[in-house]
Automatic annotation (TrEMBL):
Cellular component GO terms held in the UniProt record: cytoplasm
Alphabetical list of Pfam families matching this protein: Aldedh
EC number assigned by the record: 1.2.1.16
UniProt domain Aldehyde dehydrogenase: residue ranges: 17-452
Biological processes per GO annotation: gamma-aminobutyric acid catabolic process
Pathway per the UniProt entry: Amino-acid degradation; 4-aminobutanoate degradation
Molecular function (Gene Ontology), one example: succinate-semialdehyde dehydrogenase (NAD+) activity
Stated family: Belongs to the aldehyde dehydrogenase family.
Active site: E229
Keyword vocabulary terms for this entry: Oxidoreductase
CDD domains: ALDH_F5_SSADH_GabD
Name of the protein in its database record: succinate-semialdehyde dehydrogenase [NAD(P)(+)]
Catalytic reaction list: succinate semialdehyde + NADP(+) + H2O = succinate + NADPH + 2 H(+); succinate semialdehyde + NAD(+) + H2O = succinate + NADH + 2 H(+)
Length: 466
């Protein structure tokens, strides 16, 4: 059921795709599983590598699709294609290196071994903010492990995934190994079909904490393995001794990438008192130079938000903060002359504790900056949230870097950089930010299950001493 770009059944609309379509996709994946899992890891490796090569050869076209669907500025969209391809490259290398263990048994006539097997058919639910990269970050390890998949793509951005699936066919992925269903209005129905299916043995979901918890409840009756990469509330901590140029560069990258619509965007920027005025002044200068507009404009640095509802929500966060005493340093308004989805890159200061942006994930181009005095104070403030995905520290004190990194209750800590994600590094959170890890050598384990082999009554021949 690998899609074709000109297939009218893939047009996004009301109730075009339903639970019955999802069931057909599941059946297709189940039928393809025995042949795919029986291939050697080296064989799957070669196919993934060819897929990587094809993605890189079609980088410009895929970037154009991302800009069309998501609205990203073209350089950002092209960069996502490179990021997406890195997971295919990484897991092409991991596919041939799925190792088990030989375990010393306690009895002399017994032998024990552990092998890793593909868990089976997997349901993958991907978000709109990285329509290419979040797809390959899940597909890479799933296919490398020997699993077949049903992918529920975001209704806002279906065609990037469809194009990637066509390239996978050209690379040699057999029909039925990758199956894509997409919908905008009946997403919940399809999600429930995936969760309730006894055929699907694993769900991987990237999205909000609220939906992740709902999916976990729906999967309870079938006891699926789950990977959940959920919401964040990332602290970005800048100490007095930080390299302020690096910190400013990191704040711009981590806050305003994709117009603030990433799960690892810095949500709360904490700056120590001594350098706070200079940091705010220089950040204002940089943000004032951003150019917001349509993604294909070569001068544009930041595109629209994904929907008018998203822009309205960011506007509501700003109005709530300002109404409680916050100061708008830059921006703060929607840009209706560009369209309903556009919002100015914004900086807020003097934020009060009862403001919504303190506890809610912003998911927009809004930087909330807080002043702090002591290390103990900022660690307590940073950890005061239910989620724990990404965090950032800027300091040149090696002892403080080690100490604060260990004190932060987050699954990932970036030190003196605003870039968090890499195919070789495990990605994931703790607390209400989910479970499991994506990317890295650990990422493939979430698509495997262990099997223990015990051999008894071995005729043990004792060696004689010469």
């Amino acid at each position: 059921m690998t899609p074709k770009l000109n297939d009218p059944s893939l047009l996004v609309g009301k109730n075009l795709i339903n639970a019955q379509d999802a069931e057909r996709a599941i059946s297709s994946a189940a039928a393809a599983l025995p042949a795919w899992r029986s291939r050697t890891g080296r064989d799957r490796s070669r196919i993934l590598r060819r897929w990587y090569d094809l993605v890189m050869q079609n980088q410009q076209d895929l970037g154009t699709l991302i800009s069309w669907e998501n609205g990203k500025a073209k350089p950002d969209a092209d960069g996502e294609v490179i990021f997406a391809s890195s997971f295919l490259e990484w897991f092409s290398e991991e596919a041939a290196r799925i190792h088990g263990d030989v375990v010393p048994h306690s009895a002399p006539g017994f032998r024990a071994a552990v092998i890793k097997e593909p868990i089976g058919v997997c349901g993958l639910i991907t978000p709109w903010n990285f329509p290419a990269a979040m797809l390959t970050r899940k597909l890479g390890p799933a296919l490398a492990a020997g699993c077949t998949v049903v992918v529920k793509t975001a209704g806002e951005t279906p065609f990037t995934a469809n194009a990637l699936a066509i390239l996978s066919e050209r690379a040699g992925v057999p029909k039925g190994v990758i199956n894509i269903v997409t919908a905008l209005d009946n997403t919940a129905e399809i999600g429930q079909a995936l969760c309730n299916s006894n055929t699907i043995r694993k769900i991987s979901f990237t999205g909000s904490t609220r939906v992740g918890k709902l999916l976990m409840q729906q999967c309870s009756s079938t006891l699926k393995k789950m990977s959940l990469e959920l919401g964040g509330n990332a602290p970005f901590i800048v100490f007095n001794d930080a390299d302020i140029d690096l910190a400013l560069q990191g704040a711009i990258i981590s806050k305003f990438k994709s117009s603030g619509q990433t799960c690892v965007c810095s949500n709360r920027i904490f700056v120590q008192k001594e350098i706070y005025p200079e940091f705010v002044r220089r950040l204002k200068e940089s943000v004032s130079n951003f150019k917001v507009g349509h993604g294909f404009d070569a001068q544009v640095t930041h595109g629209p938000l994904i929907s008018s509802a998203a822009a309205e929500r960011v506007d509501g966060l700003v109005q709530d903060a300002v109404g409680k005493g916050a100061k708008v340093e830059v921006g703060g308004k929607r840009l209706p002359h560009l369209g309903p989805n556009f919002f100015e890159p914004t900086i807020l200061t003097n934020i009060k504790p009862n403001t919504r942006i303190v506890s809610e994930e912003i998911f927009g181009p809004l930087a909330a900056i807080y002043q702090f005095e002591t290390e103990e104070e900022v660690v307590e403030a940073a950890n005061k949230c239910e989620v724990g995905l990404a965090s950032y520290i800027y300091t040149q004190d090696i002892s403080r870097a080690a100490r604060v990194s260990e004190l932060l209750d987050f699954g990932m800590v970036a030190l003196n950089t605003g870039v968090m994600s890499d195919a070789a590094a495990p990605f994931g959170g703790i607390k209400h930010s989910g479970m499991g890890r994506e990317g890295s050598k650990y990422g493939i384990d979430d698509y495997m299950q262990l099997k223990t082999l015990i051999t008894g009554n071995v005729n043990v021949v004792r060696r004689s001493h010469l």
